[in-house]
């Protein structure tokens, strides 16, 4: 079930959207902590964000601009304004679509479906981890303007840990995964690769991302 985060400070509109999306089969996420909304988006990892321009603390366009520095989560701007300037700004900041109030519920659902469908291929090539964006095809990890290149082995290890985030991954599992990708390494080489991956994540501001469980393996936290 796809998760959609509604960022809307008008309670009646928020309730209307929640009902519409829930009835359409989406899991709806709500939050009124507008001051920490960027952190909330990264933490909950929605499949799509419906973002109103006029929200407290910062307008939606600024929030979108900040979000785009760390994530490619699809965003549809929802606003009562109906000017070309708002549309141009929203799209230039990275919005995937734009719809004005009062909106036609059927059209909104169609646009959500279209954006989700378009984003499936794009998101398959990117991951978000804390403040980082991982470009899988290019083997690049970014934090804002900073970026570091991962080796093939480092990317394989990271992806395997990412898919099992929060759980212990045995060293033997990682070595088998590397062998399955035609990358034969011995036990010492795995230790070196883990150490280098930790170091690169640390350079981008993520300390203690990979924890060691002595005699067992590793956990991506």
Verbal overview:
The strands form 3 sheets. The protein has a 5-stranded parallel beta sheet, with helices on both faces. A 4-stranded antiparallel beta sheet has the order 6-7-8-9, with no helix packed on it. It has a 3-stranded antiparallel beta sheet with strand order 10-12-11. The chain has helices at 11-23, 37-44, 60-68, 84-92, 105-123, 152-163, 171-180, 187-203; strands at 3-7, 27-30, 48-52, 75-79, 97-100, 126-129, 132-135, 140-143, 146-149, 169-170, 210-213, 217-220. The chain has 8 helices and 12 strands. The chain has 221 residues and is of the alpha/beta class. The radius of gyration is 20 Å and the shape is elongated. A hairpin with a 3-residue loop joins β11 (210-213) and β12. It has 2 domains: 3-124, Response regulator (Rossmann fold, 3-Layer(aba) Sandwich); 127-220, Winged helix-like DNA-binding domain superfamily/Winged helix DNA-binding domain (Arc Repressor Mutant, subunit A, Orthogonal Bundle), CATH 1.10.10.
Sheet of most strands = 5 strands, parallel
Number of domains: 2
Poorly predicted runs: none
Helix share bin: 40-55%
CATH-defined fold name of the largest domain: Rossmann fold
Structural class: alpha/beta
In terms of DSSP E residues, the strand content is: 15-25%
Q: Order of strands across the biggest sheet?
A: 2-1-3-4-5
Count of helical regions: 8
């Amino acid at each position: 079930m796809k998760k959609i985060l509604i960022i809307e400070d008008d309670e009646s509109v928020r309730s209307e959207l929640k009902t519409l999306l829930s009835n359409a089969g989406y899991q709806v996420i709500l939050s009124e902590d507008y001051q920490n909304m960027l952190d909330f988006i990264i933490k909950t990892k929605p499949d799509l964000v419906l973002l109103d321009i006029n929200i407290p603390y910062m307008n939606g366009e600024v929030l979108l601009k900040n979000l785009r520095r760390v994530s490619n989560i699809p965003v549809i701007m929802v606003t009562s304004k109906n000017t070309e300037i708002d549309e141009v700004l929203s799209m230039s900041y990275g919005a995937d679509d734009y719809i004005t109030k009062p909106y036609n519920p059927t059209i909104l659902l169609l646009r959500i479906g279209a954006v989700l469908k378009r984003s499936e291929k794009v998101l398959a090539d990117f991951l978000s981890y804390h403040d980082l964006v991982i470009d899988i095809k290019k083997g690049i990890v970014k934090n804002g303007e900073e970026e570091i290149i991962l080796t093939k082995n480092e990317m394989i290890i990271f992806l395997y840990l990412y898919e099992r985030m929060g759980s212990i991954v045995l060293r033997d599992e990682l070595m088998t995964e590397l062998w399955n990708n035609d990358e034969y390494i011995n036990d010492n080489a795995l230790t070196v690769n883990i150490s280098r991956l930790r170091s690169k994540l640390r350079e981008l501001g993520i300390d203690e991302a990979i924890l060691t469980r002595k005699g067992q393996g590793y956990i991506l936290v």
